[in-house]
């Protein structure tokens, strides 16, 4: 026989007080008439004696909030391949969520339409959402129209009232290319990210502009689609076997840069002697490649934590200092570009 669940009413009856009093004590809620310490201790003793614990669903309904936040990435499968970027992102979100008293729900169920996706986020399980989606993603627009608290991170919105946190990806790309140019490289290819991601587009534009500002032509075949770490790099292999091949590669992500380094080694090219490589994100894995990967650092942890803090303020209707925040990138020089010795001097 299944044991009956202990209710708030059971605790109140055993302690000789009202359900409201029990609720106020358990939630440490201030009352117009102070509750005596003796009553408080008696209620807590009964709670322990009966083994009472609150019903989370009922509690959420009563409070009209769940203290839970959804994390929504562009593709649910991203959670399956735990990258350095994803790890730092979740580290920043988790630490700030713990600090502010929130749980996190990973939103991994793909929906056939944006309408259904919005409905699944607004079904009462979460109070708000962090979105890593495309620029001006339709899900964000739909949630905004329905006044559902959400913040975009590692992407942006053109809406004046849109809340987002991002890095200056254009500047980051220019840092990478300018560094390679200073090292004497003029034949620099770019491994480009997905055209739907504003971060990838900004990095591509920063690369193009830096090259053009130095009067350097960029052949079309030197911009190679590499949307994720497992992308087909056959076009890069073909390019690197040409007589007048690039002497440097700037990849839109560390994962892609590491794949490119390994491919170059398979082709008999030495990094950095034959080809210099620069990535983007500068996660911890960059210290463990051979040679260590030079990369543009965006402060992933701080950006994620800032986005969650901004979202909590929206949920609580607290004022925001600003609706948007752009973080500055920096270049972490390591061995893969051949300039680490000079940087350490």
Offer a concise description of the structure.
This protein is α/β, with parallel strands linked by helices and about 350 residues long. About 40% of the residues lie in helices and about 15% in strands. The protein is elongated.
Globally, the shape reads elongated
Order of helices and strands: HHHHEHEHEHEEHEHEHEHEEHEEH
Q: Portion of residues in helices?
A: 40-55%
The rounded distance between the terminal residues' Cα atoms is: 75 Å
Number of strands: 12
User: Any idea of the CATH topology of the largest domain?
Assistant: Rossmann fold
Description:
- It contains 13 helices and 12 strands.
- With 345 residues, the chain is of the alpha/beta class.
- The chain has 3 domains: 8-54, lambda repressor-like DNA-binding domains (434 Repressor (Amino-terminal Domain)); 68-167 and 300-328, 3-Layer(aba) Sandwich (Rossmann fold); 169-298 and 331-344, Rossmann fold.
- The strands form 2 sheets. The protein has a 6-stranded parallel beta sheet with strand order 2-1-3-4-5-11, with helices on both faces.
- The radius of gyration is 26 Å and the shape is elongated.
- Residues 341-345 have low confidence and may be disordered.
